[in-house]
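[Discussion] Sanity-checking designs against the backbone

I'm trying to build intuition for which residues belong where. Below is a structure token string of 459 positions. I'd appreciate it if someone posts a full sequence so I can compare it with mine line by line.
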């Protein structure tokens, strides 16, 4: 039951109505005036809102275009390379993310978009020319310096190439023979592999086309003034295995195996160098396979995939390394095959390999300690340490990785890695673009709601 208003409250309400109406306008007249004002506002909003929306979208798109143009502002003369680069794995970062989505992340039910955002996984990918070539590439091209590649590839490729365990946290068994001879990444990897060739590849195995034969089956080939040793069929092992084995199946010094990789905490990973596995690649040749053990939410996923270890040696494995070792042939291995078309070695093939009679091996000289790996380009006369092949040395010391002066001047707050000035630059650009997009959508949201308000209150 409604309560009756007191005389006092009636008086206050009456006075308030007179004040709103200017002391002259009756209550009904004031309501009509207010409705008229709302109607005018609604008409103006209806007329101009589409224009405002189009204007805001145009500003947003222009900002995106300006940001994209800013990324390559110093490279306008190389438009063909820029167009290809935008499809490269270096730019898109699709390789590792895509592989996780197909295998481990799929098994664990991890949303990789959310995962990449949480752990800043995309911060290393190159979105500017300066990231690899430096600020003044026509004066000093930093892309020829291994320190540039190491900023992103230090977790595997450049570390093992220099003879270190991932992240240069400790020494590995031996460096790659090409490193000891003074070669860097760009001496083997073609510009098209780095810049892209206009095709969007899904993974490294598709994008990287470099082969041992490019140099070692090219008579007269020279690299940095050195004549390249050529493949010879006079070697008995070459005659027997030429169509069956990939070069690195025998000429790999050691392999990484990823142990205890916690995808939920990203801590506790312990890569080891005392395991070695072979598998079958899509063309049927036997090659090196990496084993990856990932854990998440108390579950484990094991995968095996074709992998180039960047620990090449000029001394091949002895016969007994494979013919007397079922573990290397991955007999009894269980796990998911990573990559298209690869497989474990068939059991019948393993039986044939193990059944081969091995002649007595000649004594193997004790390995000499590998040279200390540094990020500085080594002397081309450095001696190769290549006698650790059959031993699969498990000994790793804790010597710190010797970085060049100033390389650890600062730690990037986004990827916790030193020497990431360009990473920070890209992060700032990314945040600027994200903030602009957020502001644009927020403004559109306000205008949309204002339009609905006017439409609801119009007569």
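Best answer:
Here's mine. Compare freely.
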């Amino acid at each position: 039951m409604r309560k009756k208003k007191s005389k006092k409250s009636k008086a206050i309400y009456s006075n308030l109505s007179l004040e709103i109406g200017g002391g002259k306008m009756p209550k009904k007249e004031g309501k009509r005036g207010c409705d008229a004002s709302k109607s005018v506002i609604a008409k103006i909003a209806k007329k101009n809102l589409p224009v405002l929306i189009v204007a805001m979208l145009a500003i947003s798109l222009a900002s995106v275009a300006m940001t994209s143009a800013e990324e390559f502002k110093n490279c306008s003369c190389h438009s063909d390379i820029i167009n290809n680069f935008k499809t490269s794995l270096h730019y898109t970062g699709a390789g590792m993310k895509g592989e996780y989505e197909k295998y481990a992340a799929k098994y664990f039910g991890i949303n990789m978009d959310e995962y990449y955002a949480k752990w800043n996984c995309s911060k290393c990918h190159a979105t500017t020319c300066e990231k690899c070539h430096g600020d003044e590439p026509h004066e000093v091209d930093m892309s020829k310096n291994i320190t540039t590649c190491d900023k992103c590839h230090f977790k595997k490729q450049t570390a093992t190439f220099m003879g270190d365990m991932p992240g240069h946290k400790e020494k590995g068994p031996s460096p790659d023979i090409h490193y000891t001879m003074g070669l860097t990444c760009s001496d083997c990897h073609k510009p098209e592999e780095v810049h892209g060739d206009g095709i969007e590849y899904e993974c490294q195995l598709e994008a990287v086309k470099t082969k041992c034969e490019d140099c070692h089956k090219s008579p007269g080939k020279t690299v940095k003034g050195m004549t390249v040793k050529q493949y010879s069929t006079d070697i008995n092992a070459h005659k027997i295995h030429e169509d069956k084995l990939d070069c690195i199946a025998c000429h790999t010094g050691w392999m990484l195996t990823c142990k205890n990789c916690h995808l939920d905490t990203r801590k506790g990973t312990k890569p080891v160098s005392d395991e070695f596995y072979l598998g079958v690649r899509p063309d049927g040749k036997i090659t090196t396979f990496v084993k990856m053990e990932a854990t998440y939410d108390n579950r484990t996923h094991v995968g095996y995939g074709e992998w180039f270890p960047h620990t090449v040696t000029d001394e091949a494995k002895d016969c007994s390394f494979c013919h007397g070792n079922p573990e290397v042939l991955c007999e009894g291995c269980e796990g998911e095959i990573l990559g298209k078309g690869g497989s474990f070695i068939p059991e019948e093939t393993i039986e044939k390999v193990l059944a081969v009679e091995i002649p007595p091996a000649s004594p193997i000289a004790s390995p000499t300690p590998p040279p200390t790996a540094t990020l500085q380009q080594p002397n081309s006369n450095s001696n190769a340490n290549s006698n650790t092949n059959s031993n699969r040395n498990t000994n790793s010391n804790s010597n710190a990785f010797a970085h060049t002066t100033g390389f650890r001047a600062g730690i990037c707050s986004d990827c916790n890695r030193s020497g990431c000035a360009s990473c920070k630059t890209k992060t700032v650009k990314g945040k600027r673009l994200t903030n602009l997009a957020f502001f644009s959508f927020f403004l559109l949201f306000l205008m949309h709601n204002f339009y609905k308000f006017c439409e609801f209150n119009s007569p």
